[in-house]
């Protein structure tokens, strides 16, 4: 009876599943593309921080050590790059604010932590702040998410029929008050504008810096 030897590993090399091989190449390419996009977004953010929101694709390409045509392989145009950058920045900020809510042991502490984190992050770069607060779907979603976080942190402290309205109003006030300060001569320090915002939303508008924040009451 004829005996057949088991095939050696070297004899089976040619029998690689072509579908599996293609899938792996596709996955590697997708991972490389996402990594490259992230690198270009990082470069764009750095340039906006130093040079302002109107940086060109050519400048981004030069700072990345590549050509403008290569940048266009990853972003169809500047608007797509701006959208991706804005979503990246706002997503990281939203994650930090969610962490702030979890860090607070009381609703008021959660609000205080969120506002301080927002002010500190936004004030760290005027140019990036003005860039991400330009009207966009990403900004609208970010503000809606912030209002949701505020509502969650204050659940039970206000009647349900007032909570959503109050949360949306808080986000609008924080954003508008901070923008006004950013565009002013800044006679108030960062700490003072932060305390003013917190005092205003938690206990009403203060008359001077000596007023102490009160506690938000559910029967307002």
From TrEMBL:
<dbReference type="InterPro" id="IPR036271">
    <property type="entry name" value="Tet_transcr_reg_TetR-rel_C_sf"/>
</dbReference>
<dbReference type="InterPro" id="IPR001647">
    <property type="entry name" value="HTH_TetR"/>
</dbReference>
<feature type="DNA-binding region" description="H-T-H motif">
    <location>
        <begin position="56"/>
        <end position="75"/>
    </location>
</feature>
<dbReference type="GO" id="GO:0000976">
    <property type="term" value="F:transcription cis-regulatory region binding"/>
</dbReference>
<protein>
    <submittedName>
        <fullName>TetR/AcrR family transcriptional regulator</fullName>
    </submittedName>
</protein>
<keyword id="KW-0238">DNA-binding</keyword>
<dbReference type="InterPro" id="IPR050109">
    <property type="entry name" value="HTH-type_TetR-like_transc_reg"/>
</dbReference>
<dbReference type="Pfam" id="PF00440">
    <property type="entry name" value="TetR_N"/>
</dbReference>
<dbReference type="GO" id="GO:0003700">
    <property type="term" value="F:DNA-binding transcription factor activity"/>
</dbReference>
<dbReference type="InterPro" id="IPR009057">
    <property type="entry name" value="Homeodomain-like_sf"/>
</dbReference>
<feature type="domain" description="HTH tetR-type">
    <location>
        <begin position="34"/>
        <end position="93"/>
    </location>
</feature>
């Amino acid at each position: 009876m004829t005996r057949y030897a088991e095939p050696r590993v070297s004899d089976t090399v040619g029998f690689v599943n072509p579908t599996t091989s293609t899938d792996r190449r596709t996955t590697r390419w997708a991972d490389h593309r996402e990594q490259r996009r992230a690198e270009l977004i990082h470069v764009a953010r750095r340039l906006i921080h130093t040079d302002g929101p109107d940086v060109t694709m050519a400048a981004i390409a030069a700072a990345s050590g590549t050509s403008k045509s290569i940048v266009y392989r990853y972003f169809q145009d500047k608007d797509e790059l701006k959208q991706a950058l804005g979503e990246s920045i706002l997503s990281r900020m939203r994650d930090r604010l969610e962490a702030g809510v979890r860090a607070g042991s009381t609703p008021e502490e959660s609000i205080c932590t969120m506002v301080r984190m927002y002010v500190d992050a936004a004030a760290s770069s005027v140019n990036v702040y003005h860039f991400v607060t330009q009207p966009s779907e990403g900004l609208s979603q970010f503000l809606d998410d912030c209002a949701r976080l505020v509502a969650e942190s204050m659940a039970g402290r206000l009647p349900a029929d007032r909570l959503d309205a109050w949360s949306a109003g808080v986000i609008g006030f924080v954003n508008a008050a901070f923008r006004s300060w950013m565009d002013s001569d800044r006679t108030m320090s960062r700490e003072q504008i932060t305390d003013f915002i917190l005092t205003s939303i938690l206990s009403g508008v203060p008359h001077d810096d000596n007023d102490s924040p009160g506690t938000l009451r559910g029967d307002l």
